[in-house]
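Quiz preparation item.
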């Protein structure tokens, strides 16, 4: 009997990462890889049973025959949120969704801590178990890459996962592992919080289909324990709930969904919003009202608070004096019958672009206070004027084109906008005024099987999949993949190896002081003291002019600094140590490269001239699932890379061909 599983991922790296965890958790043997590099198939054995895993890297409409994200939304996932990997099993002619998994290596600093809350919220709404694997103990770095301080999340974030998991009755599990840059002090303090072993047990239970309630309970206990540890910080007293109050809140949630009512009964935590942008005078006064009559929701420094029902009418009197024409529906929210939560959203950067982390703020609030609570959203950031026009004229169109507004409309009961870029003094809207897209929750638990062996639309994801297969797997004896960051990746770090150790640089800047550019791939050539730095794009037209020298400079700048951590190079997962005194800069020779999908036969030469790179890769994807990589050298610096490619032995089962153009 053969069981077939599909792994839908942001990219090839996320698919591989999940498969690696599954392989360990099930102790799979006789691994065989075959198929197209854009849609790999892996066969493995568990005792006498055959398992097949098929990768579908890259989300997006029209990319695959069936869109897994549309299926999630039809099941009730109301936001346009994708996880790093979604696992399904092919059963009886359809696909059953088993679990969604998210990885995060970003420091849990400020709004980064709740950036992915929308994913947890949306998958739980679709009744899909959600696993959020994130890191603790990492350090923020200064401009010279020296450690500043360890960054930890606000305790409200891990608590929200436990709370929502219980209220939705769908597992929403936050699992912590140590950041590679964690020091011994944090490792000792938080060692009992780490859930790596439970993660493997959980994946085993999901794939084999055995009960995992005890594993879920264990992970929730670890998360609650972490909440208590974070709350025990003496510097935070009187600004967050105490460890005892967090436990009491958790116990209360089991019997009463009125979280705001319970918080009203506790000693008041004062709330004051810190703002780093310029505000209108009325927005400043509105925040003062929020501080005067409101109180914090579990923690002082979160941009969420609430007005208790006892203070509702007092707040409303001053609110209507400030905004005389707000809708009656918003006025009715403050009639004194219920407490009202307020979400304060900056939402937009100084030039009017979306601030992506703010998409997770309302989901965090809902995960804390529940679906029944009244929520007023206040937007005060400097959006572009055209956005305000769309908000009033066609809010449905705005929601369809913008994820932040989709969240606001889906999770708010009322809205007030007060921004410097707004032509009028303010906008007031209530839930009935915006026409959001109605999501029809379908009864079926399966979607039609994706039976393609190549994508319907090709893009940068496929360029990166081919390069990853080539350098990490086919040329693994002579190359070390220092970094691979396809679309949807997290830029978590760059590694190099010597005879004994792997050294890693964390918290990578996008550019450096020398105006260099972070590559998409970094390959250490083990046969020479060289680093290959690759910029990948979908098509040549999107390749930046003169990018080659900037790629090399980035790695040269970075590797001249001290790495963040090291480990034995034969260690597969953890084992990181922040003691790196043994590091000496190997002073590599740097080779720049560009890669893109081929549209015309002469694009190799054009790519070399445009990018100024030492070598260029042009990829062609055929209708039968084969990938052809055309390669042209631009300088003698790439001689060793060419030699390795000329001698590459590609397994017959992998549909990949290399053609080197003289």
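Solution:
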């Amino acid at each position: 009997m053969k069981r077939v599983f599909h792994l839908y991922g942001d990219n090839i790296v996320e698919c591989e990462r999940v498969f690696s965890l599954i392989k360990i958790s099930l102790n799979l043997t006789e691994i065989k890889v075959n198929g197209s590099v854009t849609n790999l198939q892996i066969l493995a054995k568990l005792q006498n049973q055959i398992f097949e895993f098929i990768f579908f890297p890259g989300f997006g409409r029209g990319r695959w025959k069936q869109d897994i994200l549309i299926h999630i939304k039809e099941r009730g996932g109301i936001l346009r949120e994708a996880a790093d990997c979604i696992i399904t099993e092919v059963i009886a002619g359809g696909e059953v969704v088993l679990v969604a998994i998210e990885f995060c290596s970003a420091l849990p600093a400020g709004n980064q801590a709740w950036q992915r809350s929308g994913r947890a919220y949306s998958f739980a709404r679709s009744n899909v178990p959600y696993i959020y694997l994130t890191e603790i103990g990492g350090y923020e770095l200064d401009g010279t890459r020296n450690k500043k301080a360890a960054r930890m999340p606000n305790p409200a974030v891990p608590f929200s996962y436990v709370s929502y998991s219980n209220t939705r009755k769908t597992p929403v599990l936050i699992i912590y592992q140590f950041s590679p840059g964690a020091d011994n002090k944090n490792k000792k303090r938080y060692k009992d919080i780490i859930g790596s072993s439970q993660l493997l047990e959980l994946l085993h239970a999901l794939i084999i289909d055995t009960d995992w309630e005890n594993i879920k309970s264990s992970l929730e206990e670890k998360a609650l324990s972490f909440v208590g540890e974070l709350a025990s910080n003496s510097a935070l007293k009187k600004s967050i709930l105490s460890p005892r109050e967090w436990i009491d809140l958790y116990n209360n949630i089991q019997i009463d969904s009125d979280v705001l009512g319970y918080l009203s009964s506790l000693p008041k935590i004062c709330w004051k919003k810190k703002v780093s942008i310029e505000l209108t005078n009325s927005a400043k006064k509105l925040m003062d009202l929020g501080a005067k009559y409101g109180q914090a929701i579990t923690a002082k420094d979160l941009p969420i608070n609430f007005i208790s029902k006892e203070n509702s009418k007092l707040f409303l009197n001053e609110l209507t004096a400030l905004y005389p024409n707000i809708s009656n529906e918003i006025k009715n929210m403050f009639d004194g019958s219920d407490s009202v939560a307020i979400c304060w959203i900056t939402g937009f950067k100084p030039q009017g672009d979306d601030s992506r982390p703010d998409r997770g703020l309302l989901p965090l609030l809902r995960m804390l206070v529940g679906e029944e609570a009244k929520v007023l959203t206040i937007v005060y950031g400097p959006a572009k004027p055209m956005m305000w026009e769309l908000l009033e004229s066609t809010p449905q169109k705005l929601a369809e084109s913008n994820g932040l507004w989709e969240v606001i409309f889906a999770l708010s009961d009322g809205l007030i906008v007060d921004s410097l870029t707004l032509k009028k003094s303010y906008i007031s809207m209530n839930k009935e005024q915006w026409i959001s897209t109605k999501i029809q929750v379908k009864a079926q638990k399966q979607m039609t099987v994706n039976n393609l062996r190549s994508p319907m639309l090709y893009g940068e994801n496929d360029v990166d999949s081919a390069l990853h297969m080539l350098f990490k797997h086919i040329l693994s004896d002579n190359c070390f993949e220092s970094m691979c960051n396809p679309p949807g990746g997290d830029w978590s770090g760059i590694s190099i190896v010597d005879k004994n150790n792997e050294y890693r640089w964390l918290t990578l800047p996008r550019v450096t002081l020398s105006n260099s550019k972070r590559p998409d791939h970094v390959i250490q050539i083990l046969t020479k003291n060289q680093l290959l730095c690759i910029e990948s794009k979908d098509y040549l037209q999107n390749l930046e002019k003169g990018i080659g020298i900037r790629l090399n400079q980035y790695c040269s700048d970075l590797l001249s600094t001290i790495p963040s951590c090291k480990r034995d190079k034969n260690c597969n997962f953890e084992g990181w140590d922040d003691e790196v005194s043994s590091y000496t800069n190997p002073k590599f020779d740097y080779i720049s490269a560009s890669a893109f999908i081929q549209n015309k036969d002469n694009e190799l030469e054009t790519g070399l001239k445009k990018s100024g790179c030492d070598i260029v890769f042009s990829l062609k994807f055929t209708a039968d699932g084969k990938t052809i990589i055309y390669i042209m050298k631009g300088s003698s610096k790439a001689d060793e890379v060419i030699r390795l490619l000329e001698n590459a032995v590609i397994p017959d089962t992998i549909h990949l061909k290399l053609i080197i153009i003289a």
